[in-house]
């Protein structure tokens, strides 16, 4: 599951302390994931979902088989009278593998957004991480085009393992 949040800094300051510290850690080192527990994610989403000024971009769930690569695009195209169309949305290119206890994910996520000023801005998250099952990864970045906002990426991998069924003894 993937979710991109554009959060005003005034709301970042009101996040639960544990989550606020994790966001600060994610901002301090570009392209490095910070591990979030289910309670951390609940605190982050609980504080941002009802708040005004928060934009959420949710990508559809994506199933990637062990070691395989997947690509997904959620696009909004705006036609113009002169020149090529503008495209905004999310593009995710990923590869995942699991050992049944932890999941490793390598990905490139591109987020193109139309700003209120009508300018188009692009952010690219490109990284790799390994998480224990049930945990989420948080990436955070600031965007010069939208000062006073923090762009956050939440990724929650879920490992599904095929289990062999033993044949009954005769």
Helix content: 10-25%
Gyration radius, in Å? 18 Å
Largest sheet: 5 strands, antiparallel
Amount of beta strand: over 45%
What structural class do the secondary elements suggest?
alpha+beta
Number of helices: 3
Give average pLDDT, whole number. 82
How many beta-strand elements?
A: 9
Give the SSE string.
Answer: EHHEHEEEEEEE
Widest beta sheet: strand line-up: 2-8-9-1-3
Distance between the termini: 44 Å
Please tell me what the overall shape is. Answer: globular
Uncertain spans, ≥5 residues at pLDDT below 50? none
List its traits:
five-stranded antiparallel sheet; globular; 170 residues; 9 strands; four-stranded antiparallel sheet; single chain
What does this structure look like?
There is one protein chain. The protein is an alpha+beta fold. The chain is 16% helix and 46% strand. The strands form 2 sheets. Strands 2-8-9-1-3 form a 5-stranded antiparallel beta sheet. The mean pLDDT is 82.
Compact description:
The chain is an alpha+beta fold and 170 residues long. Helix content is 16%, strand content 46%.
Topology:
Elements: E1 2-8, H1 9-12, H2 17-28, E2 34-36, H3 38-48, E3 55-59, E4 69-78, E5 86-98, E6 102-114, E7 120-132, E8 136-142, E9 149-155
Antiparallel strand pairs: 1-3, 1-9, 2-8, 4-5, 5-6, 6-7, 8-9
């Amino acid at each position: 599951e993937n979710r991109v949040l554009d959060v005003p800094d005034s709301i970042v300051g009101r996040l639960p302390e544990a989550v606020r510290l994790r966001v600060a850690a994610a901002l301090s080192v570009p392209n490095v994931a910070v591990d979030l527990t289910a309670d951390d994610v609940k605190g982050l989403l609980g504080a941002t979902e009802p708040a005004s000024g928060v934009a959420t971009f949710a990508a559809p769930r994506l199933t990637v088989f062990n070691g395989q690569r997947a690509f997904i695009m959620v696009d909004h195209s705006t036609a113009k009278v002169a020149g090529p169309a503008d495209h905004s949305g999310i593009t995710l290119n990923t590869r995942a593998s699991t050992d049944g206890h932890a999941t490793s994910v390598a990905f490139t996520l591109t987020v193109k957004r139309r700003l209120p000023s009508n300018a188009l801005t692009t952010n690219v998250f490109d990284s790799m991480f390994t998480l224990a099952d049930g945990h989420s990864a948080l990436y955070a970045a600031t965007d010069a085009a939208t000062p006073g906002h923090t762009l956050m990426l939440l990724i929650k991998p879920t490992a599904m393992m095929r289990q062999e069924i033993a044949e009954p003894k005769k």
